[in-house]
Amino acid sequence: MFLLNILTQGAMILSLICLAGIIYPFEPFKTRKKAVLGFIITFVASIFLTSALTNNPGFIAKQEQQAADSILAANIALVAQDYNKAEAALVGVSASVSEDKLEEIAQIRNAIATERDMPIIQDIISNDDYRVLTKLKKIKSIWKGLQDNEAGLKALSSELEAVVLELVKPIPSTELAPNRLGYELLVDIDAYTDDLDPSYAEKAQSYARKIEGCSKPDYEFILQVPRRLNDPSSFKPVRIYWGAVNSNGTKTVYMKYRAKNGFGGVISNTATGVVNLSTCNFTLRSLG
Questions:
Q1: Tens of pLDDT, residues 134-169
Q2: From CA 153, how far away is CA 189, in angstroms rounded?
């Protein structure tokens, strides 16, 4: 396995050298044609060797043992309520280990989120010294800190949705900033629950328009894109961002999202829409 690992790394390094030779044909290539040929050969070889390495029983057994050691360390840290150490123990575990190991890792991450973060959120909400806007900002900060922990996001989502909704509902409609922040947070949280609630996006959009007109991303994306997908329930918005202003008074807006394709696999894509800057009307152009 050691020799296979060395050969794999060597093939990868050679393919990079050939790639550099395509950009600038130095010795021993002299011509780009030779560099291209060298790149194709070394790239195919690196793919073949990587496949052979990852399917090697010794390599698989080593990954499984490393995952088992990480899970044990994380569980020990979890019992000691050292949640940061538990989280750190799981960093670097391969996603190609057995389903049982992946399930154990997801359960530990669920526990980290619910045992560490939910009590902190409850303390924020019960603190009378904080204004509602401050509470929402602190909760959003915790939520953003979990973005690399999808299992933790799912574990917290339903309970947190109810907590934030209870916090947002009493806010007078004249208080635009906390309403906008609250409903934008609910949109983010709702993406990890079983059912999307379109009213969150509608209200977030309404308050954003009252504050800034059309100068911020339009939440119509979150309402319209799922309706045109094979599996609307798999839709997860990632990021919305603006393009340039067009000559006809519109502005292009993009949204990166994840969803299942027709074969059941989760893929990333970018939807494109256009916002009329005079009326703020939104038109979805494509799903990517």
A1: 999 999 898 888 777 777 788 888 888 988 999 999
A2: 8
pLDDT > 70? residue 115: yes
pLDDT at 168: 92
What residues pair up with 270 in beta bridges, in sequence order? 256
> What are the structure tokens assigned to 226, written together?
């799922």
Query: CB of 145 within 8 A of CB of 160?
Result: no
Residue 38 and residue 18 in contact, taking contact as beta carbons nearer than 8 Å: yes
| Torsion angle (degrees, nearest 10) of CA 51, 52, 54, 56 | 160
The candidate with the shortest Cα–Cα distance to 161, out of 182, 179, 137, 176, is 182
Q: Which residues are paired to 269 by β-bridges?
A: 257
Overall residue count recorded for the chain in this entry: 288
Give yes or no for a contact between 243 and 251, defined as CB atoms under 8 angstroms apart. yes
Q: Which long-range contacts (CB under 8 A, 24 or more apart) does 190-199 make?
A: 190/157, 190/161, 191/235, 191/236, 191/237, 192/150, 192/153, 192/154, 192/157, 192/236, 193/157, 193/158, 193/161, 194/233, 195/233, 196/222, 196/226, 196/232, 196/233, 196/235, 198/222, 198/223
Question: CA nearest 259: which of 212, 220, 222, 209?
Answer: 222
Q: Parse the chain into domains and list their residue ranges.
A: 2-54, 94-212, 216-288
